[in-house]
Amino acid sequence: GSLLKYLVKNRDILMTSTSTDNDEINQVRSQLLSICLQIGKGMQYIVENNLIHRDLAARNCMIDATGNVKVADFGLSKNVSGNIYFRQQMSSGVKLPIKWMAIESIEDGIFTEKTDIWSFGITVWEVFNEGKTPYGGFSPTCVKTMISDGYRLEAPSNSACNDNIYQKTMLKCWERDPNERPTFAQVVTDIDTLLSNSVGYLDLTL
């Protein structure tokens, strides 16, 4: 089923905002990092096949009963074989997911691996924030202005989300300069390292 629905359904187990039990926090962190790692690996495969997804979000990932996660919904994806980016006129009539989009996608209609990386950072934020909608009740127009002015989503209130996950993973994905953002190969390596530092898994119902 949908990863977003899974996060919402299991929010009482996946949020540890009031927990002081380190074992529980580590279990939740491991579970959520595993989800993020699988999404990262899926996106790494997509990039290696010269595709830009353009609509990466928790709602467009699927999770099965054994916890396997796959990236889905390629409705906006583009093959960029031979090019490093795709440019779309913002007045083209295609409805775009502004709250998940990189600043250069919003401002200039440019899509690259690094814009998918921005969306990956938003998706990681969703995973650690019980599937909440990024930027809350702000309209897409407001979000455009906020991002341009340098605002970035605040860290989730989940104890499982430590500084390494927020500052070194999410915030790095949201650097204004695309060249300062990691590649999917890099985030996979980084998250794999974070996961190896956490232990234990939770038994969750789907």
Automatic annotation (TrEMBL):
Q: Name one GO cellular component term.
A: plasma membrane
The segment(s) forming the Protein kinase domain are: 1-195
Family matches, as Gene3D superfamilies: Transferase(Phosphotransferase) domain 1 (1.10.510.10)
Q: Which InterPro entries match?
A: Kinase-like_dom_sf (IPR011009), Prot_kinase_dom (IPR000719), RTK (IPR050122), Ser-Thr/Tyr_kinase_cat_dom (IPR001245), Tyr_kinase_AS (IPR008266), Tyr_kinase_cat_dom (IPR020635)
Any one GO MF annotation of this record? ATP binding
Coiled coil location: none
Q: Which domain of life is it from?
A: Eukaryota
Question: Known Pfam families for this protein?
Answer: PK_Tyr_Ser-Thr (PF07714)
> A single GO BP annotation from the record?
cell surface receptor protein tyrosine kinase signaling pathway
Q: Keywords for this entry?
A: ATP-binding, Kinase, Nucleotide-binding, Transferase, Tyrosine-protein kinase
The molecule here is called: Protein kinase domain-containing protein
